[in-house]
Write a structure and sequence with these properties.
mainly alpha, two-stranded antiparallel sheet, 6 helices, 2 strands
């Protein structure tokens, strides 16, 4: 598989070296087929959150796949998890934002 770039545009999925069967295995109608509890150990995440000095009681809901719950969230669950873990720099920055003020973003690493 070629990993020299990444894309979030679904129309570019053919850029990756997956055949149709592999894609069907990976996705089920556009959703990752693996349930969050199969690849996320909440006990470890809770421990890390608590070590960061934050409340872990509402952590489980941040891993929901329920669209109504996700829509009702005040901010994306990934951002809330990062905050609970004590991660300071997690927000996505667009290339256009960087181009508008390169001095402000001088320490940003482009990936």
């Amino acid at each position: 598989m070629n990993l020299d770039h990444c894309s979030w545009d679904e129309t570019d999925i053919e850029d990756f070296d997956f055949d149709e069967e592999e894609l069907v295995d990976m996705f089920d109608d556009g959703e990752v087929s693996v349930a969050s509890d199969e690849f996320v150990d909440l006990d470890i995440i809770k421990k890390l959150v608590e070590e960061a000095g934050n409340d872990s009681s509402d952590l489980e809901v941040l891993f929901t796949k329920d669209p109504e719950v996700i829509f009702a969230m005040e901010s994306p669950s990934a951002y809330q998890i990062a905050e609970k873990l004590g991660i300071l720099n997690y927000a996505w920055i667009s290339a256009e934002s960087i181009a508008m003020d390169e001095d402000f973003y001088k320490n940003v690493i482009q990936v």
